[in-house]
Every structure is written in structure tokens, then in C-alpha cells.
Amino acid sequence: MMGKIHELSEILSNQIAAGEVIERPASVVKELVENAIDANSTQVDIVVEQAGLQMIQVIDNGDGIEPEDVPVAFKRHATSKIATRQDLFKIQSLGFRGEALASIASVSDLTIETATADSLGTFAHFKGGLLEEQKTNPIRPGTAITVRDLFFNTPARLKYVKTFQTELANIVDIVNRLAMSHPQIAFTLTNDGHLLLKTAGNNDLKQTIAGIYGVTMAKKLLAVSASDLDFKLTGYVSLPELTRATRNYLSILINGRFIKNYQLNKAIIKGYGSKLMVGRYPIAVLAIEMDPLLIDVNVHPTKQEVRLSKETALMTLIEGAIKERLATENLIPDAMQNL
Ligand code: ADP
Ligand code: MG
């Protein structure tokens, strides 16, 4: 007699996984750009149409994928980034779960063009997770992935997608953070032919911020830095006069990964003491380097939530660095008066 329990088909389990990782067009952008970053790209161009609902394309000049690896890369839990349990404790790459390509392909119409420095290059087309076609395709090293018809086969998810404006705002937000976390990479973002972001890629964080928030704002930011035995912090913060009505302009980048952490945001705000008006938040971009052993990124599928083993010490460092920097800034006008 046949039991009632059976294994899900690969495509169905990929679609279920997609439900966790791929919430909306911005999630596709995030995963594809993270892959481009992990592939050592120096230029990443993101082209979307209709806030990604029509099309999402990410073009990079990175390592590329060998032709025989292409079908493998689109399998769930297929990754080139980790191999052993030890690797999981010291993750250097943005990806490692091997879920993104399988998930995205299972809920869209996807084409990939990719070539490594010493392979001929390949083109492949997936629809709803099925490989429809693969052929030789001579191109320069790098990868271009194009996603159309997102959620065509998951109507419930499609319904959840909001207005173009909301979806575009989410895309811009995620690309902003990815670009900030990687000042050594030149990014562009275009929606319906309009250039929304362009960073220099010259490894200068302040110039990168200028490409994102504008030159005027970048010029007003103060450089901060601090370090202790575990952490090295560098970045930029605004004077207490330059604030926003949301916490959205607080960016914490740990080892090149943008993370969301309420406690660290609180430490930034505490650094301002009583200098901020109620309901106003500063602008801050803080890049923190630490031993990967001190951070667990395997907490949530999207990896934006992380666990830090020395969170309190890091909070103290952040608060102190900002407090000190703002204090010296206040000293300058007084000192000038005495001249
Ligand atoms: P993960 O990033 O967690 O490894 P993905 O499903 O996102 O999983 O990607 C699977 C694999 O495909 C990656 O490990 C990598 O080897 C390869 N890959 C994906 N995108 C690119 C890219 N833009 N350039 C080069 N290799 C890529
Ligand atoms: Mg990935």
C-alpha cells in the first residue's frame, strides 16, 4: 500500500523557498546584485522596467559561470561559496545558502548569459524553474541575468506586490545599501530609462554617498572612526542639524554586508545625546570590520538580520565615536572666537 506522505517535486519546493527569499521585485534585485558582488565584479548595472514588475536585469563583469555549471547553479542548495561546516562559521561572501537562483527561476521567466575568462560563454532560458534551452553564446566574461514575468505562476504573491512607487522605492533602497557597502564597485540603477543612481567605484565611501544621497548632503557629513580589539569602524555622520524624519538614513555595514539592527541604530542615536529634536534622526553610514567568527549571518533567509556576539561592546564603540566627533565639531567655533 502507498503511504500518504511523499517528497515535494524540486520545482514546488523551490517555489516554497521563493516565498521566503523572494518577497517582491526588490528581493530579486538584492539577490542578483549580491551574486554579482560575490563574483568579484567591478561594474554592476541594474536595469528595471516598471519597478521590476516588467523586467529586472543585472549585468556584471565578474567571474562568470562555466557552461556545465549553469544548470547546477539553478538547483536549490547549489553554491560555490561554502563547502564545509567550518565555512559556515566564517562566511566572507554575501551568499552561501544556494537558494536565490533556484527560487527566482521557479517564479519567473529568466534568461542568463554568462562567460568565464576561459570558457566560450553560454545562454540559458528557464521558465517556472524548467530549463527550456541552453546554447553556446560567445560574450565577454561576466554575467547578465534577465527576469521577466515575476510571480506569473504564484498569483497570491503577485497580489501582494504594491504600487510601482512602493516597489521602486524598495529597489532604490536596497541598491543604495549595496552600493554603500561596496564603494570599490561602480553601480548604476536605471528604471524605465531614467538613471536613478550612479556611483564612482573608486573605493571612496564619501564619493559613493555623494552618488547616492547627492553631493550637497555628502559634503555636510563628518568623518568618524574608532576601533578596539574586535572592531574597526569608519564612516560618516551628519551634524545634529541635518536630520530626517525616518531611521531610513541609518546604514550599518558589517564586513561589506548591509544589516538591520535596532540596537546598533539606537547606539548611533545615543551618540547624539540630547542634540536631536524629537522624531528626527541623523544620517549615518557606518562601515564596521570584524572577525567573521563574531557574526552569525545564518539567522534569516534574507541575511539582513544577524547575531553579533559582542553587540554591547560594538554599541559602546559606535556611541562613543559619534559623541566624540560631535564634541570636537562643537569646539571649533569656540576656538575661533578666541583667535
Ligand atoms: P549563493 O549565492 O547562496 O551561492 P545562488 O543561488 O544565489 O546561491 O547562486 C548559486 C551559484 O551560482 C553561486 O554560488 C555562484 O557560484 C553562481 N553565480 C550566481 N550568480 C553569479 C554571477 N553573477 N556571477 C558568477 N557566478 C554566479
Ligand atoms: Mg546568491
UniProtKB/TrEMBL annotation:
GO terms of biological process kind: mismatch repair
Keywords on record: DNA damage, DNA repair
GO CC, alphabetical: mismatch repair complex
GO molecular function: ATP binding; ATP hydrolysis activity; ATP-dependent DNA damage sensor activity; mismatched DNA binding
Record carries keyword DNA repair: yes
Domain DNA mismatch repair protein S5: 209-327
Function statement: This protein is involved in the repair of mismatches in DNA. It is required for dam-dependent methyl-directed DNA mismatch repair. May act as a 'molecular matchmaker', a protein that promotes the formation of a stable complex between two or more DNA-binding proteins in an ATP-dependent manner without itself being part of a final effector complex.
Family per similarity comment: Belongs to the DNA mismatch repair MutL/HexB family.
Designated name of the protein: DNA mismatch repair protein MutL
The species this protein was found in: Latilactobacillus sakei subsp. sakei (strain 23K) (Lactobacillus sakei subsp. sakei)
The organism's taxonomic lineage, starting at the top: Bacteria, Bacillati, Bacillota, Bacilli, Lactobacillales
